[in-house]
Amino acid sequence: MPEVTADTKMSARAVRVHYGSKEALKGIDLDIPANRVTALIGPSGCGKSTFLRCLNRMNDNVATATVDGDIRLDGQPLYGPGGIDPVLLRMRVGMVFQKPNPFPKSIYDNVAFAPRIHGVAGDRDHLDGLVADALRKAGLWAEVKDRLNDRGTGLSGGQQQRLCIARAIAVRPEVILMDEPCSALDPIATAKVEELIDELAASYTIVIVTHSMQQAARVSHQTAFFHLGSLVELGATEQIFTAPTQQLTQGYITGRFG
Amino acid sequence: MPSVGDRHIVRSYDDALKKLHDALARMGGQAERQLSQSLQALEQGDDSLAHQVVAADPRIDADEHFVNEQTVRLLALRAPVADDLRTVIASLKIAADIERIADHAASNARRTLVLNREGAPAGPVRALIRLGWRVQALLAEVLEAYLQHDAGRALAARGLDQEVDQLHSSLFREILTYMMEDPRTITACSHLMFMAKNIERIGDHATNIAEMTCFLVTGVPLTAPRPKGDVSSSEGLLPVPDR
């Protein structure tokens, strides 16, 4: 099994996932380097989203799902008896979904929600600071600072997605998981989210699942190609898109998949 | 397992890439013909063949424009990746090399018209023609390797250029000797010197094509420098070896 290197934020070894009797992941070894963007690509049903959801135990909520193998965050196991508490884990590993899903609350309360329930916010001033900081980092502050009490659901799609990113980073996670964060956005909103991913990579570790090959090429440092529950190829994004080593990878990214 | 075929799911993408490939094959064949006809024109003192070579040059220029437009279109509309990207980039660069090769052949044909009128010393002309056929073989081999996507063959052909460089160096010295011995040959010999340089340049363009072929096939750019056998640019600076 490959050795885990020092700059690895999360590591997966021999990860298998079953949904009932169906094997969705067939033993994945993959390292997520710190402060880098890792893109997971592959056709529908290849297991990339399943793998993403293992990284903060989202599959726990799927009754039929069983996860085997070893996943670690900074060397601490996620699963098993000595595993990190799932609530704490999800504070350290945040998630942004495909469809923007702000809570039906004010913009302010959306961002303040997690700091409040995790008890990381002190007094009102401190919470105000956290909210403003998260909105700034999400590149949304200038657009919403005068209407923090408006409902989050009243924003445009792109703004809503950046609000969800602000909500995810309000508790200062170490890793942000993104599951097709731009698939419901227009090109301008997509560009803003991609710019945001670039900026966030300086302080966070990001894993993004995307169906847009060009997006993976634009935003990620390393790219993992999944197919039928296996990891076919992992490499520097530039290498994957100019000279992939596997025929399957080449067939998929060039559109010659039969 | 799904199969990874030669064909894209979007068939018009294949059509666009095939147009590019066909244009390159046409240009390559045309450039080979231009070079061989320019050599024949010199060998046989054939003015009308030399005129043909000069007249045919704009056709290759037009093909190169087509390749340029087609690559820009493919890059903009298809955003090619992996081997498709390398195919498009290699086409663009190789088309430019082929266009230069044809230019050099046309330039030699024009100079041949002068030599046919003025007369030229037979020794250097023979050596020049020998050099030309050597480069012709190199070019044919490299173009074949490119069209067949054969990196090993391209790499092997690239090695032949060293010999071309050495022949060019010795031809350069031979022409100098003629000019020193008989100043009446200076006009013809100057033309011969430029013609030799043109042929040597064609060899260099052929090695560029070989290098792009390796990149196209393997995805790894060739970084190791090619051994150079041409010392003519230092003539007069270095001690002249025994002749």
Describe the structure.
The complex is a heterodimer of chains A (258) and B (243). Chain A is α/β, with parallel strands linked by helices. In chain A, 35% of the residues lie in helices and 26% in strands. Chain A has a six-stranded mixed β-sheet with strand order 6-7-8-3-9-10, sandwiched between helices. A four-stranded antiparallel β-sheet of chain A has the order 2-1-4-5, with helices on one face. In chain A, α3 runs parallel beside α6 and α6 runs parallel beside α7 (187-200). The radius of gyration of chain A is 18 Å and the shape is globular. Chain A starts with 7 loop residues before the first strand and ends with a helix. Chain B has 243 residues and is mostly helical. Helices cover 79% and strands 0% of the residues of chain B. In chain B, α4 packs antiparallel against α5 and α4 packs parallel to α7. The longest helix of chain B is centred in the middle third of the chain and has 37 residues, at 82-118. Chain B is elongated. At the A-B interface, α8 and α10 of A face α3 of B.
Computed over alpha carbons, the radius of gyration of chain A is: 18 Å
Secondary-structure class of chain A: alpha/beta
Strand content of chain B: under 5%
The fold-level CATH name of chain B is Methane Monooxygenase Hydroxylase, Chain G, domain 1
Major sheet summary line of chain B: none
Kindly report the average pLDDT value of chain B: 91
Give the overall silhouette of chain A. Answer: globular
Distance between the termini of chain B: 67 Å
**Helix/strand/pairing category of chain B:** mainly alpha
How many domains make up the 3D coordinates of chain B?
1
- What letter string, H or E per element, gives the SSE order of chain A? EEEHEEHEHHHHEHEHEEHH
